[in-house]
Amino acid sequence: MSITFNKPPVSPNSEAYIKCALTQKVGGDGEFTKKCSSLLEEMTGAAKVLLTTSCSHALDMTAYLCGVEAGDEVIMASYTFPSMANAFVGRGAKIVFVDICPDTMNIDGNLIEAAISGKTRGIVPMHYAGVACDMDKINDIAARHGLFVVEDAAQGVMADYKGRALGAIGDYGCVSFHETKNFSMGEGGALFIRDAEKVLDAEIVREKGTNRSSFFRGEIDKYSWVGWGSSFLPSEINAAYLWSQLEIASEINAARIGVWDMYYEMLGPLAKEGFIKLPYIPRECRHNAHIFYIKVADGKVQAALLGYLKERGIGAAFHYVPLHTSEAGRKFGIFHGEDRFTTKESSRLIRLPIYHGLSEAEVEAVVRAVGSYFKR
Length: 376
Hints:
alpha/beta, Aspartate Aminotransferase, domain 2, Aspartate Aminotransferase, domain 1, 2 domains, 8-stranded mixed beta sheet, 3-stranded antiparallel beta sheet
C-alpha cells in the first residue's frame, strides 16, 4: 500500500465550475470570487474577505497596510513558515522571535510583553495545525501597547477560538488555499479584514494601487493610481475550483475531523506506553484537523521513523525548521529570551498523512506501521 502525505480536495463540481469560468470571466473578481468571499465573510464574521494569489501575498499586503517601516520590530514565533517573516522583512522590519508553548507549538503569549521595545509595531501569531493561539492575551497586550495584530491563519479555515473564527480576531488575518490546505485553489489565499473602515485601503493595495474596485461598484467615473499596490487577484479559474469545495465545506471538514479522531484513538495505546505524544487541543479551541502530528523522543527517532515509514510507502513529514536557526533568520531577526522549546519540539514532530478521502483502512495501515517501528 502506498499512502501519500496529501491529496488536494476535489469536489464533484470542480471540473464543471472551472469550465464555467472559462466560458464567462477568466480574470479576477468575477462571480466565483464573489461567492467565495461572501461565504467566507458569513462563516467568519469578517467585515471583508479578499481572495489573493497566496497567503504570502496576503501577509505582504498587511505589512503595508499596518504601516511597517525600516527599523520597526515585529514579534512572532520562530516555528513558522518563512512567508510570515518575509512580509515584514520586505518592509525593512527586524523580526523578534520568542519561544513557543510545547503543548500547542504556538507562540507563548506569556513571553510577548518582555520582547516589546520602543521600536515594536506589531505581533503576528500563527495558529499551528488550526489550533488557536491565546488571542485574548495577545489582543490585550497589543491594545495596551498600541500594536497591530496580524493572524497567520494559513492553516485555520473553519477553526475558532472561543467561538470566534481564526483570522477574524486580529486587525487582519491571512489564510492559505494552497494545494496542501483543507480547501484549495491550487495556489491562493485570502485576506480577512476585521474592521470595515480598513477595506478601501486593502482594495487599493490589492488592485495595483488603483481605486478600480470603487469604479466597478459605480462609485467613481474613472479609476486611477492612488497609492502603492500590486496585482494580488487570483483568476476565476482558481476561484471556481475553491468554490466547488467551499459549498461542501462542512462535509470536507467533518471527514477530516473523522480521520483525525481515528488517529487519536488508534494511537492512544502507543501514547500510554510512552513511545509517542499526541496533539493537545485546549478547551477554548475548535480545531479543523489540518494536521495530525505525533511527537517522538528526539531528532534521531524522528529521522529514523520518517525513514521507516518512507520505506513502507507512507508519506509522513517533518515540519518547520525554526527560522531563527536559518541563515536569513540570523540576518533579519533575533531570538528574545531562551529557546527552551522551539528547536527541541520541532525536532520531535512528525506529521502523518491526512486529507479528505483518506480511508479508515489507510489510517489503520499508518498506525500499524508506526506501531511496528516501536514494537520491533
